[in-house]
Amino acid sequence: MPAIKKRKVTDEATAPAPASAEDNDASSVSSQSGDEGTSPEAANSDEKPTSTPKTFKELGVIDPICEACANLGYKAPTAIQAEAIPLALQNRDIIGLAETGSGKTAAFGIPVIQSLFQSPSSFHSLILAPTRELAYQIGKSLDALGSTINVRTAVIVGGMDMVSQSIALGKKPHIIVATPGRLLDHLENTKGFSLRTLKFLVMDEADRLLDLDFGPLLDKILKVLPRERRTFLFSATISSKVESLQRASLSNPLRVSVSSSKYQTVSTLQQYFLLRPHKHKDIYLIYLLNEFVGQSAIVFTRTVHETQRVAFLLRTLGFGAIPLHGQLSQSSRLASLGKFTSRSRDILVATDVAARGLDIPSVDVVLNFDLPTDSKTYIHRVGRTARAGKSGVAISFCTQYDVEIWQRIEGALGKQLPEYEAAKDEVMVLAERVGEAQRQAIMEMKNFDEKKGTRGKRFGKGKRSRDEMDQEEG
């Protein structure tokens, strides 16, 4: 902690006011450590040993929250937590940049809950998230972190009943976790609800908030929030949109970064590619799932149709697979996630709805059945495994049509990844069984499409309503 203070004082002493637009109105605090943040090697400098905190208590966290962290199995702070928490406890605005799976939720959740413990009030904090699933996950994490001091949270997202949400807001929760569209609906339509007494604003996955065109809604929300507040902006990547949001909503913030590059994955993740013809993708998918049998896996596809088809294919062959995509109802999406996290199903076939923000601790393998079109999405997909210091495997299918996309991904990562070894003779033994399952899956897809009818029209190119903005199109 003294090292962090020293860097903070140095930043303030050398730059009492922004010297140019290049400073982006933020001081910088960079970590040389990776995802661990607690290894002795990370403290390889002239600083005293105390510069690398080993416990949350050393960061200044109070005992009740330390107890909650211990109950959750948090043995030591991650890099982003070790850097961000002490500064946040000093009442500074924070911009936190760290790769997915590095513990960002606790990095902002612990200071918020500690402030609430010291000064209890209703509508104390607002956490904004881009998607419904992420909002629910943050809500669960904050409930757990605040369990020892009886923190009350309310999750306010689209696709759910507004009346029951209004009742929840009427009970004056301490913390609101919301998606922007539904929050603005309540600010405009729910009598007696306002955020004039707000103490903390947190924007999680800020770049994604802006990717989903929440910008105009965020502007309206910021106008009704008090100026005297603390603001935390957390993201895995930063863009020009995020920079402009930072200038509009933060006051003299400190930037905390534990990523050494724009595109970074954790060191405990083993990454491979599998170069095979497109027509054999299904066969190799079954081969890999047999290789990793008994382990939990997420299979990422590019479209809703392919997600559903692959799920039908795997079920026909006896795998416990469940689909997750944007055309499922909100209750069905939550049910799918619940079955996967509880391990009653060990394979999740998903679009990029599941690529970002969701913390599913037991994911062992990520299979990119369809490559994502951009490198940032690849980072978030493979970040579903190897979380919180655990190891994981990511294998990406690369067909004759995907070579250029894969080269761009490797270019963004700054390295060439090895090819996964799969003996063709062993794989092609499965061809006949997979062929029969493919025919069965096609028949089930026809029935599925007939039942769905025209429901998919809302995922066209037209503008989505405010209530649908927090439901990703994938």
From TrEMBL:
Its annotated compartments are: Nucleus
Annotated region Disordered: the residues are 1-56, 444-474
Q: Which reaction does it catalyse?
A: ATP + H2O = ADP + phosphate + H(+)
Task: Please list the residue ranges annotated as the Helicase C-terminal domain.
Answer: 284-428
Q: For this UniProt entry, what's an example GO CC term?
A: nucleus
State the oligomer form and interacting partners: Interacts with the SSU processome.
Briefly, what is this protein's role?
A: ATP-dependent rRNA helicase required for pre-ribosomal RNA processing. Involved in the maturation of the 35S-pre-rRNA and to its cleavage to mature 18S rRNA.
Protein's name in the database: ATP-dependent rRNA helicase RRP3
Origin organism of this chain? Answer: Penicillium subrubescens
